[in-house]
Amino acid sequence: QLQLVESGGGLVQPGGSLRLSCAALGSTLDYYVIGWFRQAPGKEREGVSWISSSGGRTNYADSVRGRFTISKDNAKNTVYLQMNSLKPEDTAVYYCAGRQGLATMEQGRYKYWGQGTQVTVSS
């Protein structure tokens, strides 16, 4: 059973950077697509990025493309989300999720979810 644990959230000023981590327990990430999702107060959860099981393919939401980078460290069984040039509208709880099969931004297709980590962008 795949378990995911997020970390790295916090308070940052606009224009700053944070790196979120998604550590996998119970199974190797070699078999899983990992997606990052976020939910802002009063809004629905939305897809941010995904990385394929091989790590060779990635995708980003238009709102973060060019500012966020998703990556994978197989040795550490961890996926990262490097977030640069952060904006107040990036404030949200960020979740990582895992699934087997095709990569997708559709959150309903992800079976395994972490508990979330809060990111607040404010001066």
The gist of it:
The protein has 123 residues and is an all-beta fold.
Structural class category: mainly beta
Low-confidence stretches: none
User: Helix and strand string, N-terminal first?
Assistant: EEEEEEEEEEE
Helix content: under 10%
Mean pLDDT: 96
Largest pleated sheet: 7 strands, mixed
The number of distinct helices, counting runs of at least 4 residues, comes to: 0
The share of residues in extended strands comes to over 45%
The number of distinct β-strands equals: 11
The gross shape turns out to be globular
Radius of gyration: 13 Å
Head-to-tail CA distance between termini: 40 Å
Give the secondary structure arrangement, pairings included.
Blueprint: E1 3-7, E2 10-12, E3 18-25, E4 33-39, E5 46-51, E6 58-60, E7 68-73, E8 78-83, E9 92-99, E10 112-113, E11 117-121
Parallel strand pairs: 2-11
Antiparallel strand pairs: 1-3, 3-8, 4-5, 4-9, 5-6, 7-8, 9-10, 9-11
Structural descriptors:
48% strand, mainly beta, 123 residues
Could you explain the architecture of this structure?
This protein is mainly β and 123 residues long. The protein is 0% helix and 48% strand. The protein contains no helices and eleven strands. It has strands spanning 3-7, 10-12, 18-25, 33-39, 46-51, 58-60, 68-73, 78-83, 92-99, 112-113, 117-121. The strands form two sheets. Strands 2, 4, 5, 6, 9, 10 and 11 form a seven-stranded mixed beta sheet that branches. Strands 1-3-8-7 form a four-stranded antiparallel beta sheet, with no helix packed on it. Strand 5 and strand 6 form a beta hairpin. The termini are far apart.
